[in-house]
Amino acid sequence: AYAAHDSLYAAFSIKDEKDRQKFLVSSHFTRADSGYRMSLLPDGVVLNYQHWKPDGYLLFAKQTVYIHAFSLGNGDSLISLNTKAEEGRKGPLGLDFNNFSLSAISSIAEGKEQLFRGLLDGSITFESKDSATAITADLKVKHFSYKNDTLGNISIQGDNKSPDRYTADVKISGYGNDLEVKGYYDTKSTTEVFNL
């Protein structure tokens, strides 16, 4: 990290045993009217040896963190994060995936053996309600595999619109599998915590 002309530059980097750039995240902080603004440098993102194009910014204000069209793209793969409100105001936070390869993240913790593979599509919404955070998820993973064993296509829908109850509907199909599990987890129940 280093500072220059009222700006702060910082980077997180991982190289492999051959000194090749495996991961890199380079950020740029500047002062804004309402706080500090952070963006990623145009050529400053590498995930699993591949260069990704960043866009958007994060605004760190006194009362909130506002995220404006923050995204990483590589070809037709995209992950984006956005506050659904006017700049500087609190609002629901949307996390969206389009044809996003799980290997871009899981390979951080991998050695010689692959952990997770698959292509992720869908969205997760985070919304503050009465000092709690409500989560709504609608995700699909195509060709999901764990340690080179392909399980199939996974569909996940879930939420915790009630602060004490997490509901989920998980389906696994393809590759000889056909499974669906529906249920909820109740954090306050004294008799039946899980219900499937």
What does this protein look like?
With 196 residues, the chain is mainly β. Helix content is 2%, strand content 71%. It has a 15-stranded antiparallel sheet that branches. It is built from 1 helix and 15 strands. The protein is flat and about 60 Å long.
Shape: flat
Q: How many β-strand stretches? A: 15
Largest sheet: 15 strands, antiparallel
What radius of gyration results from the CA coordinates? 20 Å
Structural classification: mainly beta
Q: What distance separates the N and C termini? A: 50 Å
Mean pLDDT: 89
Order of helices and strands: EEEEEEEEEHEEEEEE
Helix content: under 10%
In terms of per-residue confidence, which ranges show pLDDT below 50 for 5 or more consecutive residues?
Answer: none
Q: How much of the sequence is in beta strands?
A: over 45%
Blueprint of the fold:
Blueprint lengths: L1 E3 L2 E9 L5 E12 L2 E13 L2 E2 L1 E9 L3 E10 L2 E7 L9 E9 L1 H4 L9 E14 L2 E15 L2 E14 L2 E10 L2 E10 L7 E2 L1
Antiparallel strand pairs: 1-2, 2-3, 3-4, 4-5, 4-6, 6-7, 7-8, 8-9, 9-10, 10-11, 11-12, 12-13, 13-14, 14-15
